[in-house]
Structure formats: C-alpha cells, structure tokens
Amino acid sequence: MTAIAVHQFAQCITCHAWSPDHSMVAFCPNNNEVHIYKSLQDNWERVHVLQKHDQLISGIDWSVRSNRIVTASHDRNSYVWNLEGSEWVPTLVILRLNRAALCVQWSPKENKFAVGSGAKTVCICYYEQENNWWVSKLIRKRHDSSVTNVAWHPNNLLLATTSTDGKCRIFSTFIKGVDTKDSRAGTFSDSKFGELIVQLDLSFSWAFGVKWSPSGNTLAYAGHNSMIYFVDEVGPSPLAQNVAFRDLPLRDILFVSERMVIGVGFDCHPMAFAADERGIWSFVRFLGERKTASGSKYGSQFSEAFGKLYGQPRQGVGNDSVESSRLRGCVHENCINCIVPLKEPGVSTIKRFSTSGLDGKVVIWDLEGQDDLSQYL
C-alpha cells in the first residue's frame, strides 16, 4: 500500500488544500464552510471555521508564498482570506458572474488567480494596490459550456481550461501593470489578455482535470469517456496522444514528474500513467490496490457489468479479473474528486500527494519505495 495516512474528517469533502508547511489542511465538508484542521502529533484538531459563503464551496487553494486562502462557491462569489493575528479575515472579490463559480487556482507567482464558472466564463483576478481590493478581468465568449477546471502554466501567463463542451483551451492572461514584459517570453510573447492560443478538440465528452507538467512542455487532461489526453508542443501544430482505459472516468489529475501522471476519479483508486523513453504514454497500475496470488489486475464496476451483460466469465481475456473497485481493498470508498501535491521547496518531482472524495476522507499517498514507479520519477 502507498497510502501512509487516512483521515476521516467529514461525511463528504468537495475540495481541500494544504498550508505551506503542510501542518494544516483546509477543506469544505460539502457545505458553505471551510474547516481548517491542524496536526497535533497523532491527532488533528479543528482550529478555524471560515464562514462567509452562502452556498456550496467548490474550490479552495492555499498560496505557498503569501499564506493566503482563496475560495470559490456556487454563490457566484470568491473570497481571499488573510491571517491577521489568530483570525482569518475575508476580502470579497467581485467576479461579476451570473452562474456558480466551480474551481479556483493561484498562479505560480501568486499575483493572480483564476476562477472557472458555470457561466462559460473564466475570471482572472488580481490585486489593485491603489484601491486596496481584488478585481477581475473576464475571458468571455470562448467556452460553449461550464468551465470545469483551470491550470496555470509555469510561466504565469498561459492558462489551460477544460469544459463540459468537451474542449481544452489555452489562453493568454497577460495583464498590463501586473505582469512584466520580461516574463512574456517564448512563442506567445505577443499575445494579449484573453487571446485563445489553441483549442484542443480531442474529447467528445465532458473534459475535466487539466494540468501542466513541471516544465510546462506537456499538457494533460481527462475526458468523461474514460480517456486521458497528453499534448506536447502546444501551439499551432500540437503533438497529441490519448490513453483509453476500461475503468471509470477521472475527475482530476496531477503531474508528479515529467513522465508520470496520477489520475483520480470515480473508480476510488488513484491511477498511475507514465511515458516511456520514446514519450509514449500508457496506464501503469492502480495505487493501493490489493495484490492477489496470481498477480492479476482489476477492472471496474463498469467492466464487471459489461462482462455480465455479454456473458463473459469473471476471468476475462488474459486472465484479467473484473472485480469492482470495492473488492480491491481500496482506501477510498467513493469518488475521488480532488488531488493536491505535497511539494517540497525547490524540488520539481512530487513524491507525496493527498486525495479527498465523497467519502469524507483525506488520504496522503507516498510514492517512495514503489520500485516499478521509481523509474518515472
């Protein structure tokens, strides 16, 4: 097993984030509150409850440098929380949305954050020093449906989005007075705010969970059709490949290195995908699955149902068992909807990460000691 810690915090968790030193975790227990727990030796103690939103909180991100928390909610609002003394003080961000805010993420330099929404809109928010408030610039009329996820490129300028219209898009977020011209390097140095750099039409279903690799050379995102897509050389002629798997769809993904991605979703188990020396991506294995005497791999409830529908035996082609996720001895007992890195300063490779899901658990995973995966880290 690679799960080193399992914490049952609530009946259901919609999203979570860690403090810069990983001593505290903030999560939404499927309501309009943010609960912050602090680690005290072997126990966790609730130290703060952030109450300002009116509806379900759908996104949380905790900045590493400035120790600020940003939240987004179905009430169409976003708040930036600053720790003043022993209290978290909220500052309202005017998003100008007429639908729910669905996701939020700080930029690498933490001078901006992006909010995806059900209004087919992305809000790029930044701080105005003169007026002492947070304002937003909107990327409109680019998406045909809800924006499900956002991901910042390491250069702090490009933003990737996924949507329920099945497309992944990349935009420029250059804001005069916030970003410096020196940072506008690379192929897209002349792009203006909101300019569509590239639109990827690889998925014919809802798209979720987009992320950049640590170098920014590779982009990956998941489709609701049980496929994950990898794109190199993002631009006018991107190089794309997809990996189809027989298990349930993914909801979120994370690059732990240039050559390995961890995906989480409806199958209750994190899934490892890796690229070989030629750059060909493939599914490696589940994390934390129970091993059997025969060493066979497992499928999903979906696969099991189809096996019964077509009258296939439980030991299918190649002796691959099609037992359900619940029979694998999995750590999570329901859909995993969030994966967060536990990154060490100055290290690009991520060896520890956490997941949370609809079972109310936050699970910390460690890739150390996984001999079959170490070659990809």
UniProtKB/TrEMBL annotation:
<keyword id="KW-0853">WD repeat</keyword>
<dbReference type="InterPro" id="IPR036322">
    <property type="entry name" value="WD40_repeat_dom_sf"/>
</dbReference>
<dbReference type="InterPro" id="IPR001680">
    <property type="entry name" value="WD40_rpt"/>
</dbReference>
<dbReference type="GO" id="GO:0034314">
    <property type="term" value="P:Arp2/3 complex-mediated actin nucleation"/>
</dbReference>
<keyword id="KW-0206">Cytoskeleton</keyword>
<keyword id="KW-0677">Repeat</keyword>
<keyword id="KW-0009">Actin-binding</keyword>
<dbReference type="InterPro" id="IPR017383">
    <property type="entry name" value="ARPC1"/>
</dbReference>
<dbReference type="GO" id="GO:0005885">
    <property type="term" value="C:Arp2/3 protein complex"/>
</dbReference>
<protein>
    <recommendedName>
        <fullName>Actin-related protein 2/3 complex subunit</fullName>
    </recommendedName>
</protein>
<dbReference type="GO" id="GO:0051015">
    <property type="term" value="F:actin filament binding"/>
</dbReference>
<feature type="repeat" description="WD">
    <location>
        <begin position="140"/>
        <end position="172"/>
    </location>
</feature>
<comment type="subunit">
    <text>Component of the Arp2/3 complex composed of ARP2, ARP3, ARPC1/p41-ARC, ARPC2/p34-ARC, ARPC3/p21-ARC, ARPC4/p20-ARC and ARPC5/p16-ARC.</text>
</comment>
<dbReference type="InterPro" id="IPR015943">
    <property type="entry name" value="WD40/YVTN_repeat-like_dom_sf"/>
</dbReference>
<dbReference type="InterPro" id="IPR019775">
    <property type="entry name" value="WD40_repeat_CS"/>
</dbReference>
<comment type="function">
    <text>Functions as a component of the Arp2/3 complex which is involved in regulation of actin polymerization and together with an activating nucleation-promoting factor (NPF) mediates the formation of branched actin networks. Arp2/3 complex plays a critical role in the control of cell morphogenesis via the modulation of cell polarity development.</text>
</comment>
<keyword id="KW-0963">Cytoplasm</keyword>
<comment type="similarity">
    <text>Belongs to the WD repeat ARPC1 family.</text>
</comment>
<feature type="repeat" description="WD">
    <location>
        <begin position="50"/>
        <end position="91"/>
    </location>
</feature>
<dbReference type="Pfam" id="PF00400">
    <property type="entry name" value="WD40"/>
</dbReference>
<comment type="function">
    <text>Functions as component of the Arp2/3 complex which is involved in regulation of actin polymerization and together with an activating nucleation-promoting factor (NPF) mediates the formation of branched actin networks.</text>
</comment>
